[in-house]
């Protein structure tokens, strides 16, 4: 189904150069082990370099300096990125627009851009604005007055609460909830009085959000997800958080209210971040860590509570030896007491 | 849109007293920094007391004894609670009842109270009872024989399994699942035999539950969420748990089966509680902690496994120094052995 | 409603033998404390053995060797399993097939087996195959080209993405998402380029999956959930994972990409497993643990990072004593220095 491409066309698409037969045509991409003569493969990990000689592929995408073993090759700076781009080129079919389908529920005053697809069973509330080439899957519910940019895909059973803003080229996977009330209550003596959550969530361009994630609306202003940030499944982002650009937030992370992340922050799986913190640019946090305080830019931290990842590794190596260490110290105490007694008696 | 209120009216609503112009009218609430002459602001944190002199607000809500700097003021015991109440008064518009809308799916024998709103795409199973002023959003699915009290809001794509009971003034946010089967199996040699989960979930009055949370039905009786308890997003409450009144359960907490919480318990984010435990009243558990045993009332605990929070802080301060501690002990061992050898040779 | 059974019939169903009146009829099952003369009860925990003498039940299911105190009894190897089977027999009513109900959305080329129930508001995409006796609840969305086996129950608002395969006798609870895109991106200098996720999820026979869980599709091949495995609520299973047979994966566990679990693995609540790992058969991981490396078959581990559970318990017992240990070591250092000084001066 995918059209064939010559190596020359492929090299132009990838920003690389051909070594070998520029006119050779390939129709797909596969691994070094699995590729056939009609397919292109790639060498991303140097430890597989010898497979370039033996792969059945018709061509190999290689980094500069790698031995092409006489094979047709495309030389690019980043073969793994090239692999992702070739997968897209060969194997991702654009979904044709199907328009507003019968059974979609469209509220009053909704505007829909060109070439949209709104499936049966999707609900679009009054006053919503949808951009061009938007796809809204069945069961998704977009409350009133939401604005959605161009080229956005909202998967089945996503919910976007009223007034939230979604930029361009955003994908939201199934079951995710955007704009539910922040968790804010004022103690009133016996119980809790709900603090109205009057703000919104604003999702900037090029964000992707996984399945069953929750992002709460701000109390008064906006919870912000910065441009290019990628969020995995089952992540919790509380009210008033401001997440920077190109962050990577892995599954089951929780970020408490009013915390700000810089750009290019990576939070590994199941990390928890306390509220009202400032996390700098390029910070990396190891899996399952707990962040109780501000983190300066460029830090790599782990642990509960977190400190330097390198030091954490060294400390954790001691933990299994703690019972022995305790015994050793008890024995030393006894020996020192004996030495002291002996010297005192001399 | 919100109607203006005189300071006298506002003070009566808040249970406070006016100092200054009782007839002054305000039309909204904003922060000390942002408020304008038509708005009221509030002083909740004493460190901002000097801003009372300079705020642009037309009036300030203050605690007793705070300097009003000659401004119009309303004196109340709890300005933060007053802020929440004023937000509600000025900025939360009641949603007018829209009735059972076309496209709502209503099963046989359903009873619906006065002034309800059931949106298109909501599904109400046979035999369900809904109270007055109930709002059921699109995509919510209420299985058979559920009972729902008055003034309940069920957001989009919530699922309530059969037979569950929901009290009055309960709000359930989008995507939450109430009454799915508890995780119970009997090993049968090779694999697992499912233990039928025949009980229900009972949610008492004034509970709010966040988005994408899960509360499992009991095996035989009822999983209970006590009156006034607030549950955040992505929380797991397993079968047969009994949660007390006015508890605060923060995002991503997990509570294993048959555990009982007292009243006013606070579980911070990502806490895990083992099964069949008893957690006393007023217990507070620090973020990410793991609770393996019963906790007496009034305790403040942290850690995995958890112990006294104060002692946990002191222990965690030692963790980064464990490698040094281990080296110090090794050096001491060597020195003590040398001392022993020297004394032995004398 | 449930038909009565003689003890003889019940013993045959359970694979046990009657002691006492084989013709005695019972109509339900209840606990030792609650059962009445028309009900059967069971003794699973030896510490309640004395209640066999005093229970009001008409018969007791017992393990071999237990004293029946003259009561009617059924002797079985595993009374707890028998309890689960009796609950099913007496108290789980089969749901009669209701066919494809009006308001169900069925795509082109869908095939549906015998005796299915597809509720109003369910969406079945084009080319989907559904087996016999399948139940699809309201709001569930099955994308194109999914195949579903016999005797499968898909609860409300579940989403299954395109092309995924579901075996026989599988139950998926509300809000769970099967087949959302894996979290894969190639850094492209400034930001991230999405790696197309072209594989599927394959769920084998006899799997049960809880509510609001997420299982991502593979990048190229299949994420696999092995036969008989039970998965709780809010679990995350990342792309390319292969989960073995009869595993037990408790709530809020997260398993990173490309990790393989053997058979009969138990992961307790909130465990995290890193990516590209191999976890052997019969491994048990304690609650909240973090697994950074491969685990050999038969291991029982805990901790972050995890090591032997038995050693972890011993280490954790030292943690609260770390401040004292540190003080003791400091005191020893001082004493040893004094001893050294004294000996040096002699």
From TrEMBL, chains A, B, C:
Active site per database record: 239 (proton acceptor)
Pathway in which the depicted protein is active: Bacterial outer membrane biogenesis; LPS lipid A biosynthesis
Gene Ontology molecular functions: N-acyltransferase activity; UDP-3-O-[(3R)-3-hydroxyacyl]-glucosamine N-acyltransferase activity
Keyword Cell wall biogenesis/degradation included in the entry's annotation: no
Domain annotation UDP-3-O-[3-hydroxymyristoyl] glucosamine N-acyltransferase non-repeat region: ranges: 26-89
Pfam families: Hexapep, Hexapep_2, LpxD
This protein's UniProt keywords: Acyltransferase, Lipid A biosynthesis, Lipid biosynthesis, Lipid metabolism, Repeat, Transferase
GO biological process annotation, one example: lipid A biosynthetic process
EC number of the protein: 2.3.1.191
Transmembrane segments: none
Similarity remark: Belongs to the transferase hexapeptide repeat family. LpxD subfamily.
Subunit annotation: Homotrimer.
Database matches in PANTHER family: UDP-3-O-ACYLGLUCOSAMINE N-ACYLTRANSFERASE, UDP-3-O-ACYLGLUCOSAMINE N-ACYLTRANSFERASE 1, MITOCHONDRIAL-RELATED
Reported function: Catalyzes the N-acylation of UDP-3-O-acylglucosamine using 3-hydroxyacyl-ACP as the acyl donor. Is involved in the biosynthesis of lipid A, a phosphorylated glycolipid that anchors the lipopolysaccharide to the outer membrane of the cell.
Protein name: UDP-3-O-acylglucosamine N-acyltransferase
Organism: Geobacter pickeringii
């Amino acid at each position: 189904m995918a059209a064939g491409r010559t190596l020359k066309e492929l090299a132009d698409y990838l920003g690389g150069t051909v070594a070998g037969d520029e006119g050779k045509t390939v129709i797909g991409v596969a691994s070094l082990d699995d590729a056939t003569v009609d397919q292109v493969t790639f060498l991303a990990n140097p430890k597989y370099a010898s497979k370039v000689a033996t792969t059945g592929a018709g061509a190999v995408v290689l980094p500069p300096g790698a031995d092409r073993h006489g094979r047709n090759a495309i030389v690019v700076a980043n073969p793994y990125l090239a692999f992702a781009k070739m997968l897209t080129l060969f194997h991702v079919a654009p979904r044709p627009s199907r328009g507003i389908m019968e059974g979609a529920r469209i509220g009053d005053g909704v505007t829909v851009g060109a070439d949209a697809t709104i499936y049966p069973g999707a609900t679009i509330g009054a006053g919503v604005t949808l951009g061009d080439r938007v796809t809204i899957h069945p069961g998704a519910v977009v409350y009133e007055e939401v604005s959605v940019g161009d080229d956005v895909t909202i998967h089945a059973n996503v919910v976007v609460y009223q007034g939230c803003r979604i930029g361009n080229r955003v994908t939201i996977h199934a079951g995710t909830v955007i704009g539910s009330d922040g968790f804010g209550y004022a103690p009133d003596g016996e119980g809790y009085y709900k603090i109205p959550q009057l703000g919104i969530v604003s999702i900037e361009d090029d964000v992707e959000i996984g399945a069953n994630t929750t992002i709460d609306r701000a109390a008064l202003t906006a919870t912000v997800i910065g441009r290019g940030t990628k969020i995995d499944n089952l992540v919790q982002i509380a009210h008033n958080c401001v997440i920077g650009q190109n962050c990577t937030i892995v599954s089951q992370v929780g970020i408490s209210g009013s915390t700000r992340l810089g750009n290019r922050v990576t939070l590994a799986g199941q990390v928890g971040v306390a509220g009202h913190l400032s996390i700098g640019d390029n910070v990396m946090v190891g899996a399952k860590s707990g962040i109780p305080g501000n983190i300066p830019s460029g830090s790599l931290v782990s642990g509960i509570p977190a400190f330097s990842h390198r030091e954490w590794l060294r400390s954790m190596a001691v933990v299994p030896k703690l019972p022995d260490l305790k015994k050793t110290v008890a024995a030393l105490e006894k020996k020192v007491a004996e030495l002291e007694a002996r010297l005192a008696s001399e």
